[in-house]
Amino acid sequence: MRNPTRTPFWALLVAMVLSLVVACSDSSTTTEPPTDPEEPPTDPEEPTDPEEPTDPEEPTDPEEPPTDPEVPPVDPSPGPDPDPEMPDHYVCEASEPLPIIPCQIGYGMETVAGSGRHLDPVSTTVYKVTTLASSGEGSLRACIDGSGPRVCVFEVAGYIELDSRLDIRNDYITIAGQTAPSPGITIRDAMLRINANHVLVQHIRVRAGDDPDGSKPSERDSLLMIGGRYSDSKDREYIVLDHISASWSIDEAFSVTDMVANVTVSNNLIAEALNYSIHAKGKHSKGTMIIAKWALYHRNIVAHVDDRGPLDVTPRGIFTNNLSYNTAQVGHRIWGLKERSYYDNEYRINTTMNNVRIPGENTLYGSNQDDQWAILQTSRSSSKVYVEENLCGDYKNDDWPCVFVRTSGADQYRVKEIPIWLDGLELLEVDQVEAELLKHAGARPADRDETDERIINEIRTRTGTLKNCVGPDNFYYPTGKVQSVSGSSITLSYDSDDCDDSKEGNEGRKLVILSGPGEGESRTITSGNSCPSSSSIKVSVDGGWSTEPTSSSTYGIEIDCAANAGGWPEMKETTRTLEVPANYNELAESGYTVLEEWLHGFYAEVED
Predict the structure, then answer these.
(1) SS3 label, residue 18
(2) 277 plus 338 within the same structural domain
(3) Residue 54 falls within a domain, yes or no?
C-alpha cells in the first residue's frame, strides 16, 4: 500500500541508510542502448477496430515469459524497522539489481536512469531547473537536451509554457518532479515526448491544451513515449513513468508506442483528453495506448475519455489494479498484434486482473460498446490470455465476465492460470482499487492542483463529463483563406497531416467568414471532412450565401466550448533553494547513490 507520511531527509544520514533495503523484479538483462537516436516523425493515428486476420504462422522458439499459476504473492517481509517517519513502502528486503524506485516492482524497473551507477566511477550531472522559461539556461529543456547521465531537479514550481515540444532524445535521465516546491511542475501548450533508453519521469503534470496558435493537433499528445519504429528499428528500453498527471491532449493523453520494451507505467492519472476539439478528424478523445513488449500497466486511472482506456498491444503484458471512469467506449481494448508489423512473429501472453470500470454519463451502451471491462481481439496461435476478477458495469457475459470477445475464436486463448507475473508485485483486492487509487494516483496526490482534485472528486461522486475545450470561451480553429466556393460546397486552406475522409471532421460546427466578401455571414457545416489535399479541406454547408465568399475571404470554424474543463487553474510560481549533497556521486550502503537517496527523501512531500 502506498501510504507515506512526511519524512526528513533520512537518506543523508548513515543510520537511516541502514534501514533502506530494496526488493526488485526478475526482469530481463539490460542491453546496451543506442545513443542519441534519430528523431522519428509524428506518431500516426491508429485505425479504429480493424478486422483480425487469420492466424499467421506460429513463431519459432519464442521467449518464454515468467509464469506463476498461483495467486499473486503479497508484499515480502519487511526489513529492519524503519524510522517512525519513514514511508513504510520504501522499506523492504534487499536484492539485486536495485529498482530505480525503492521497493517497487516492474519491467524496466532495474534501470539506473540518470543516476550514473552504470559507470565506473559513478558519475552524473545535476541540472537545477531555476526558471519556468521554455528554453535557455536553467530551464527543464536544458536538462533534457543534455547528454550523458543527468538528473533534473526543480528549485521552481508553476507552469512551464512551452513554445515547442520537449524531446528526450538522449539516454540516461531522471526527471525528479518531487523536488519541486508546491504547487509542483505543470508542462503545458505542447507535448513531452520521449525517444530514449533508461528514463525515469516522476511527479509532474503534462497538459498539451487547445491553444489555436500552438503546435499541430496531431503533435499534441500530452505525453508520448515513442520508440524506434521510424528511425533505427530498435526498441527503446528501460522506461519508468510513475506518478504523472496527463490531460487536455488533442490526441492520446498518454502513450507508449512504436517499438518500446521493458516499461512500467504506474500510479498515473490520465484524464480529459479533449473530445470535439481541434483534431482534424473531429471527435477524438483518446486516453492511453500501451504498445510495448514486456510492459506493466499498474494502478493507473483513466477518466473522461471516449476510448483507449487503455488500448493494449503488448506481446507480454500485465495490466493490474487499474480504474477507468466514464470512458464512452470500452475500458480496456486488447487489440490484435497484427496492427504492428514489428510484432509479426509474436503472440500475446497477457494477465489482466483486478481492474475496475465505472460507467459514467458518456458511457455508450450496445452489443459491442457496452460497459464491459475488455474487448478482446486476439488471433495468434500460442497466445495465453488471463482476463479475470475484474469489475465492470451492467454488461453480462456469463461465459467470460466483463469480456466481450470481438474476434471470432479469440476465447480459445483464455487460460485458467496466470500466465505471466512479476514476483513481489503487490496486488490489491478488486474492491480496494477505487479507494486506493483515488488516494494515491497522479502527480502529487498529497498536493493536488485544482484540476486533479476535481477529477478525483468526480470519480468519487460519479459526476463529470467529456470535455471539448480547456476553457469556456469559443474560438476559431482552423482559420485561413477561402480557396473556392461552389453553391453549398466550399474549399478552405488548412494545413493538416491527419485529415481523414471517413471521419466527421467539423460536422455540425459554424463556418464564419471573418473578412472579405461575405464577412460576418455564417453557416452550419453539414458534411465536414473531405480531404482534397494535405493543404485544404472541403466542407458542405446548410445553404447558400447572401454574399458569396471568394478567394479574397478569410474564414474560421467555431469551436463550441460549452463542455469545458473550467480553464487553466491558477498556478503560482514559487521557488526554494535546494542543497544538493556535495558527495552525490558516492554509493551509499544501500547501493543507491547519495543523490538518489536524497531524491527519495522528497517522496513523502508529494505522495499521500
Answers:
(1) coil
(2) yes
(3) no
Measuring CA to CA, how many Å separate 308 from each of 270, 304, 366, 374? 11, 11, 17, 11
Global pTM? 0.86
Q: Please indicate, yes or no, whether residues 412 and 528 belong to a single structural domain of this protein.
A: no
Looking at the fold, whether 415 and 532 belong to one and the same domain comes out as no
- DSSP SS3 for 229: coil
Instruction: Please provide the distance, in angstroms rounded to a whole number, between the alpha carbons at the two ends of the chain.
Output: 11
What element of type H or E holds 266? Answer: strand 260-266
Pull the grid cell for residue 213. 496558435
Is there a single domain that holds both residue 149 and residue 292?
yes
Neighbouring CB atoms inside 10 A of 81's CB total 10
Q: For residue range 444-501, what is the model confidence (pLDDT) as tens digits?
A: 999 999 999 999 999 999 999 999 999 999 999 999 999 999 999 999 999 887 888 8
| Whole-number Cα distances in Å, 489 to 486, 509, 519, 537 | 5, 15, 17, 11
Nearest-10 Cα torsion for 214, 219, 222, 227:
-150
The x, y and z cell numbers of residue 315, run together, are 506481446
Are both 435 and 481 inside the same structural domain?
A: no
- Residue 109, C-beta contacts closer than 8 angstroms, at least 6 positions apart: 24, 25, 27, 99, 100, 101, 240, 264
What residues form DSSP beta bridges with 414?
Answer: 385
Helix, strand, coil tally for the chain in percent (to 5) = 10, 30, 60
Classify 556 as helix, strand or coil.
Answer: strand
DSSP letter for each residue of 118-157: TSSS---EEEEE---SSSSTTSHHHHHT--SSEEEEESEE
The per-residue pLDDT for range 524-567, each reduced to its tens digit, is 999 987 888 889 999 999 988 999 999 999 999 999 999 999 99
Give the rounded distance of the alpha carbon of 84 from its chain centre.
35
Instruction: Please answer whether residues 165 and 138 qualify as being in contact, where contact means their C-beta atoms are separated by less than 8 angstroms.
Output: no
Q: 497 is in which domain, residue-wise?
A: 475-559
